[in-house]
Amino acid sequence: MLMRRVIPCLDVRDGRIVKGVRFAGLRDAGDPVERAAIYEAEGADEIVVLDVSASPQGRATQVDVVRAVRAVLSIPLTVGGGVRSIDDASRLLDAGADKVSINTAAVERPELLAEIARRFGTQCTVIAIDAAARSDSAEYEVLTLSGSHPTGLSAIEWAQRAATLGAGEVLLTSFDRDGTRLGYDLGLIGAIAGAVAIPIIASGGAASTDHMVEALRAGADAVLAASIFHDSETTVSHIKQELHARGIHIRR
Question: Where are the domains of the chain?
Fold first, then answer.
């Protein structure tokens, strides 16, 4: 049985962690290097760093932040935001990322996923899908540019195509639940888990261990959270203890 993972997320803008609700109203939430070191010490399985202003501003991820975070980590590091080319991915991997996460550029040019997977391997290639429920159906729509641009794409169909192109993992964020602390979108997780065979990291809405258990049982392979850790409401170690007590197979 594969071990499930607990992953703190560092949404970064101008070198600082930020957090908001549905990608808006961002507030300062600390220093990414300091927080990354704390989360590893608490038992985090991985760290995700997302440069939330890179794609909207049309620039690459700030490599100096990646390099500084990697300097204090020994666990896997996934980095995303502004990855638009093989060169962008290469710079992040050279700076210390283990995996690169691609969202907007992959939707605009899907072949980028195949190019990165061929050059660096599927294990380095993460498709980030920000999805919102469509009001007129039970479907989910892919959003790009940090949630600001509806694409008309079906999240399920896009996940399937991304996996075929070479994505080795899905970073799946519910736009509707992001920052709300209402729990993960279990319908979204179940739909994507039923459509692809690659691992899924569930993101958006976590406020408790109960929410994480629900997401893992809905089909997620890992659970990602941000504000509950940044605001010191709980710790990674406490969450993992509770998951273990609930019968979830995790690394302790």
Answer: 5-245
Residue 59, pLDDT score? 45
The structure tokens listed for 147 are 């949630």
CATH 3.30.565.10 holds for 5-245: no
Contacts of 117-121 spanning 24+ positions with Cβ under 8 A: 117/165, 117/166, 117/167, 117/168, 118/166, 119/86, 119/89, 119/90, 120/89, 120/90, 120/93, 121/168
Q: Which residues are catalytic?
A: 11, 130
Q: Indicate if the pLDDT at residue 51 is higher than 50.
A: yes
DSSP H helix total and E strand total for the chain = 11, 12
Helix segments in the chain, DSSP class H: 32-41, 54-57, 63-70, 86-95, 104-108, 111-120, 155-165, 186-193, 209-218, 227-230, 236-245
DSSP class of residue 4 equals B
Looking at this protein, which amino acid is placed at residue 37? Answer: A
CA–CA separation, 126 and 99 (whole Å): 7
Q: Would residue 152 be called left, alpha or beta, if left means φ above 0 and alpha means ψ between -120 and 50 degrees? A: left
pLDDT band at 24 (very low <50, low <70, confident <90, very high): low
The model carries a pTM of: 0.92
Please enumerate in sequence order all residues whose Cβ is within 8 A of that of 45, keeping only pairs 6 or more positions apart, or say none.
Answer: 3, 5, 6, 7, 75, 76, 222, 250, 251
